[in-house]
Design goal:
Layout: H1 3-19, H2 28-35, H3 91-118, H4 122-142, H5 146-169, H6 181-194, E1 214-217, H7 228-235, H8 240-252, E2 255-262, E3 266-273, E4 276-284, H9 285-298, E5 310-318, E6 321-332, E7 335-344, H10 359-369, E8 374-379, H11 386-395, E9 404-408, E10 419-422, H12 431-438, E11 445-448, H13 454-464, E12 469-474, H14 479-488, H15 493-499, E13 500-512, E14 518-520, H16 524-529, E15 540-542, E16 559-570, H17 573-580, H18 585-594, H19 600-609, H20 615-621
Parallel strand pairs: 8-12, 8-13, 9-10, 9-11, 11-12
Antiparallel strand pairs: 1-5, 2-3, 2-7, 3-4, 5-6, 6-7, 13-16, 14-15
Helix pairs in contact: 3-4, 3-5, 4-5, 7-9, 12-13, 13-15, 15-17, 17-18
């Protein structure tokens, strides 16, 4: 049911309700009959009205034995509530009906918005809730007994609502369920907190009633440690609860980034989930600006500066789980834009086996990681998961027996027993300067977040040839291009050929939801273009064709999580000779193919055939 029709029927229902107000009191006649005094009963003579005897002729009418009384004003000496003359409305019955009517309109509106956001078929659930309410009002206006009619009205209203709540609670995370004991308790605590009644505090003395179970921890101005005063300053903000709810919702929806984008009259909110941007509920401009200031205070940023770009960071405690946030702002023509990167240690990859590679590639990479020296490079565009791969590679090395030092910009995930250095250009601590320094600290393994310039790349290659195992990343489309990218940075061919051991190219694709993906028969032309035999492919998989059939496991998106598509280039002796001799890119690629290297597209097709991702997702991310 479209929104315009919903509001049309809502106005029509109000009109019907208003037109039936005089019919709400069905007991007027009974009350008038009970209130009429009996003349022959003792003690009622004074209360009985005087009898008037009228002589009647042949054609005259007899006196009316039941006097007429206007409205609810029945002359009864036991009557406690005195209504004015002509007052026909029974408030004892009208008020609960009106309250249930307003609750019905609000819940129908909520069902419509909630079902659309979860892609559960908003038109079906909204229509069901609307028809249930209309049926209930029809019953209470037609059943003689008010109590029985009101019970029927409540049943027809709560039936569709309860069915929808049960269905949507099966499809959402535990923290997003409604009408559960935990949810009702939280609503009660929030309501009391807004009234100034604080019930219960957390272990550290902070109010536990104000919003979701997440607590922000501010960053000190020096960047070292935490600043509790900044946390308290943010908590005193008027819209602190809205900021907590937004971040809590983003974490529940597995978002990796939150984008606050100013518009003329509002602040739009978008989440990046599995690499794709999804809109969320926007804020009014005043509320949005206040939320931006809250995060700037937590990140030790200047709230008065709204034009120049700023960077900051803070942490949050979510039920004992520490989550780091990286904040970046940029002034625009209509206001200040803010991006928050959510770095959740829970989502970090700890092993090579968790990356989704085939076993043969995993064993080849492990052999490279256990070499005494050399360089392992991960290449790909921004957001391809290169840093995650390097973290997983570091986890394969015993940090207790090796001196591991990393140089990152910034440090995203903390690793135990590993010395992690964060680049600070303002303080003069660049990749090149930090790398020169740590090479004098007897490292066994060195990880460089990115080789951006010739100096950093040259020092890294020299370190790889002098007995160190070096991990790094470079921006390139594939493994062969990464080799020539390093040559373009000014690395001598002989130094490059002797230092690099392997290059891993990668992309990220979304994984199909295992609960709602649907099979289909691909076209023979598509299979021939992909180099697959049509007679051996039974089916491909894709997200649900009807968005309303998507399940709650993936939140109605059809995808849940991401996995890597890889291409591994091992530098054999023949390829090293070709690099020294200045061979062409096509010649090196042909030699790598002879050694069994598979392209990323071919690795991706393997995932499509296994039903882990869709052919559309592969074509969009792997060229």
């Amino acid at each position: 049911m479209k929104r315009s029709w919903r509001w049309f029927w809502l106005v029509a229902a109000i009109g019907v309700l208003a037109s039936t107000v005089p019919l709400l009191d069905r007991s007027d006649l009974q009350a008038q009959e009970a209130a009429k005094p009996a003349a022959d009963e003792p003690g009622d003579a004074a209360a009985a009205p005087p009898k008037v005897v009228v002589s009647r002729g042949r054609d005259s009418l007899p006196n009316d034995p039941k006097p007429f009384y206007r409205g609810n004003n029945v002359p009864n000496r036991n009557q406690v509530l005195k209504w004015p003359s002509g007052f026909y409305l029974n408030l004892m019955r009208f008020v609960p009906i009106l309250g249930l009517f307003l609750l019905w309109t609000w819940s129908t509106h909520w069902i419509d918005n909630d079902a659309r956001s979860l892609r559960m078929g908003g038109e079906f659930w909204n229509g069901l809730a609307f028809l249930g309410g209309v049926l209930g009002f029809g019953l209470i206006l037609s059943v003689p007994s008010f109590a029985f009619g009101f019970l029927l009205m409540v049943s027809t209203y709560s039936g569709p609502l309860g069915w929808y709540v049960y269905t949507r609670n099966q499809r959402v995370p535990e923290g997003a369920k409604v009408l559960t004991p935990q949810h009702l308790r939280m609503v009660a605590l929030r309501t009391l907190a807004r009234l100034g009644i604080i019930v219960g505090t957390s272990k550290d003395g902070r109010d536990s009633a104000l919003g979701p179970p997440i607590r922000f921890i501010g960053k000190s101005v020096s960047g070292r440690g935490e600043d509790d005063s900044r946390s308290r300053q943010a908590e005193k903000s008027k819209h602190y609860l809205a900021a907590k709810e937004m971040i809590y919702d983003a974490i529940l929806r597995r978002a990796t980034d939150v984008h606050l984008e100013p518009k003329t009259d509002e602040l739009s909110v978008r989440y990046r989930i599995d690499g794709v941007m999804y809109p969320a509920e926007p804020f009014d401009r005043g509320v949005g600006d206040a939320i931006v200031n809250i995060f700037k205070v937590l990140g030790a940023m200047d709230i008065t500066e709204k034009r120049k770009p700023q960077d900051g960071s803070f942490r949050a405690d979510l039920e004992g789980r520490m989550i780091d946030f990286r904040v970046a702002t940029q002034g625009t023509s209509v206001g200040e834009k803010m991006s928050l990167r959510i770095l959740d240690q829970k989502n970090s990859v700890s092993k090579i086996s968790d990356l989704g590679m085939r076993k043969q590639m995993q064993e080849q990479i492990r052999e490279v990681l256990h070499l005494p020296h050399g360089m392992f490079i991960a290449c790909g565009p921004t957001g391809a998961g290169k840093s995650t791969t390097l973290y997983a590679a570091l986890s394969e090395i015993d940090a207790m027996q090796s001196n591991i030092i990393t140089v990152e910009d910034p440090v995203e995930y903390k690793i135990e027993n590993v010395t992690q250095i964060e680049v600070n250009a303002k303080a003069g601590n660049t990749f090149a300067s930090a790398l020169r320094s740590i090479l004098r600290q007897d490292p066994d393994v060195v990880m460089i977040g990115e080789m951006r310039d010739a100096e950093t790349a040259k020092i890294a290659c020299q370190a790889a040839t002098t007995g160190h195992l070096v991990f790094s990343t470079v921006h390139a489309n594939d493994t062969i291009t990464a080799l020539f990218r390093l040559l373009d940075l000014g690395i001598e061919p002989f130094l490059l050929s002797s230092s690099v051991s392997a290059i891993l190219g990668q992309r990220l694709v979304r994984k199909l939801c295992p609960d709602c993906k649907e099979p289909y028969k691909p076209k023979a032309e598509l299979l021939k273009q992909a180099g697959l035999p049509p007679e051996k492919i039974e089916a491909f998989y894709r997200p649900p064709h009807d968005p309303n059939t998507a399940c709650g496991t993936c939140g109605g998106l059809g995808y849940k999580g991401r996995m890597g598509v890889y291409e591994l280039l091992l530098l054999t002796d023949r390829i090293r000779d070709m690099v020294r001799e200045g061979a062409t890119m096509s010649a090196i690629k042909a030699e790598a193919r002879k050694n069994g290297m598979q392209y990323m597209k071919e690795e991706g097709l393997r995932l499509v055939v296994k039903g882990l991702t869709s052919i559309q997702e592969l074509n969009e991310n792997v060229k």
